[in-house]
Design a protein that fits this description.
By secondary structure, the chain is mainly α. The protein contains 11 helices and 5 strands. The radius of gyration is 22 Å and the shape is elongated.
Length: 226
């Protein structure tokens, strides 16, 4: 299966997409290859669905296209948390509404999602969300309903991993790792100097201060303001 993101119109796709399939079959020695195009814009998606005529009898390609009008996971009965996050990332769930934001956070907080995937999914959603949706999501993440999942678990996991190394400075290392995990989950990328500050700091109180700021800060500069 070939996944092709398509954000804007491009005439070259009519020539390149058939090549993707034939090349995939040749390289993998597989009898079948499928092209799935992800195109959030319904108008652009309609263009992507047009059959590509190659000129060879019987060799035409009609791409499978998923857009924001009804991606898998958008329906209330779609139970997979991964499909829910996929639908939200495609614009199929309104995260600027509290019900939509609740649904996405409930999916990410699902027990069936691993901690590693939870961090990745959180980062993806916060990066793709509009400013209005991000404010709603971040506010919800600090409430009692979600704080244990999105904040305390990152903190506890980082400390446990640091202490498990058995070093004298394990607690500080754990707090530093928790801080970096939280920044990553919120889509905040520290500079090399800021990362050096975090990894070299041995004062747990200072790391706790930065962690608390990182919960709501909109920039890394706000986290390391001092």
């Amino acid at each position: 299966m070939i996944i092709e993101p398509q954000l804007r119109d491009s005439d070259t796709k009519r020539f390149s997409w058939p090549v993707y399939l034939t090349t995939a079959r040749r390289l993998n020695g597989c009898p079948a290859a499928v092209l799935v195009v992800l195109c959030p814009d319904p108008a652009e998606a309609a263009k992507c669905r047009q059959t590509i005529r190659t000129g060879h009898p019987g060799f035409d390609l009609t791409p499978i296209v998923i857009d924001s009008s009804g991606p898998p996971g958008a329906g209330d009965d779609d139970g997979s948390p991964y499909l829910t996050v996929f639908a939200a990332s495609m614009g199929g769930i309104d995260m600027e509404s509290e019900p939509g934001a609740h649904r996405v956070l409930d999916a990410i907080a699902s027990p069936s999602v691993t901690d590693t995937d939870r961090l990745r999914m959180t980062a993806i959603i916060l990066n793709l969300a509009s400013d209005a949706a991000r404010q709603i999501l971040e506010a919800m993440m600090t409430t009692a309903e979600y704080q244990k999942t999105f904040i305390e678990r990152i903190h506890d996991q980082g400390i446990a991993e640091g202490e498990a190394r058995g070093k004298a400075e394990g607690k500080a290392e754990g707090k530093a790792e928790a801080l970096l995990k939280l920044l990553s989950a919120r889509g905040l990328a520290p500079t090399d100097e800021q990362r050096r500050q975090v990894t070299s700091t041995t004062d747990p109180a200072r790391l706790d201060l930065w962690f608390d700021r990182a919960i709501t800060a909109s920039t890394t500069a706000a986290v390391f303001a001092d």
